C-alpha cells in the first residue's frame, strides 16, 4: 500500500510536469480562474519560496541522504501509526519528484499559481501533506497509543 502511494504521487507529479513542459513555455501563465488561480510554468532554481537559489548540488545530496535514511528506517516506519508511516512515504515521494527535476536540469518545475502564494507543484503538496500527517501523528496519535 505504501509503495503504491509513493509511485502514484511520484508518477502524477512527473506526468503533470511533463505536460506543463511540453505544452507551455517558461513564464507562460494560463488563467483557470482569472486573478485567483493560474497554471504558470516556473523553473525554480531554489527550494521553497526560492530560498537558496542555484544550490542544486546541495539539494541533490540532501535528497539522496533523505532516500538513504528512509530506506534505513523503513522497517521501523512500518510499525508506526498510519499517519506517520504514510506521511513519511508522501514526504519521500515529493522529495524524489523534485530531486528528479534537479538532476535533470538543476531546476524544479512549478505550475500551481494562486497569485498570493509562490508557485508550487504536486511534489510540494506531497511534502507539505506528509509533514502535516507526521506532525499529527506525533502530537495526537502517539498520545493515544501511550494511553
TrEMBL record:
Source organism of the structure: Selenomonas ruminantium
Family: Belongs to the peptidase A8 family.
GO molecular function, one term: aspartic-type endopeptidase activity
Enzyme Commission number: 3.4.23.36
HAMAP family: LspA (MF_00161)
Assigned GO CC terms: plasma membrane
Enzyme class: hydrolase
PANTHER family xrefs: LIPOPROTEIN SIGNAL PEPTIDASE
Record GO biological process: proteolysis
Designated name of the protein: Lipoprotein signal peptidase
Assigned keywords, A-Z: Aspartyl protease, Cell membrane, Hydrolase, Membrane, Protease, Transmembrane, Transmembrane helix
Topology within the bilayer: Multi-pass membrane protein
PROSITE patterns the UniProt entry points to: SPASE_II
Membrane-traversing stretches: 56-74, 81-100, 120-139
Pathway noted in the entry: Protein modification; lipoprotein biosynthesis (signal peptide cleavage)
UniProt KW Protease keyword: yes
Record: active site: 110, 124
Pfam families the record matches: Peptidase_A8 (PF01252)
Function: This protein specifically catalyzes the removal of signal peptides from prolipoproteins.
Catalysed reaction, written as an equation: Release of signal peptides from bacterial membrane prolipoproteins. Hydrolyzes -Xaa-Yaa-Zaa-|-(S,diacylglyceryl)Cys-, in which Xaa is hydrophobic (preferably Leu), and Yaa (Ala or Ser) and Zaa (Gly or Ala) have small, neutral side chains
Compartments in which it is found: Cell membrane
Amino acid at each position: 500500500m505504501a509503495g503504491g502511494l509513493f509511485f502514484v504521487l511520484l508518477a502524477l507529479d512527473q506526468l503533470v510536469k511533463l505536460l506543463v513542459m511540453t505544452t507551455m513555455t517558461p513564464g507562460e501563465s494560463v488563467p483557470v480562474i482569472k486573478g485567483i488561480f493560474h497554471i504558470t510554468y516556473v523553473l525554480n532554481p531554489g527550494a521553497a519560496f526560492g530560498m537558496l537559489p542555484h544550490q542544486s548540488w546541495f539539494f541533490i545530496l540532501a535528497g539522496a541522504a533523505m532516500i538513504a535514511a528512509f530506506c534505513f528506517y523503513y522497517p521501523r516506519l512500518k510499525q508506526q501509526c498510519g499517519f506517520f508511516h504514510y506521511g513519511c512515504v508522501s514526504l519521500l515521494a515529493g522529495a524524489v519528484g523534485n530531486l528528479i527535476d534537479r538532476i535533470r536540469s538543476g531546476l524544479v518545475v512549478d505550475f500551481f499559481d494562486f497569485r498570493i502564494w509562490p508557485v508550487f507543484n504536486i511534489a510540494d503538496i506531497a511534502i507539505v501533506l506528509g509533514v502535516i500527517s507526521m506532525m499529527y501523528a506525533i502530537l495526537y496519535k502517539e498520545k493515544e497509543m501511550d494511553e
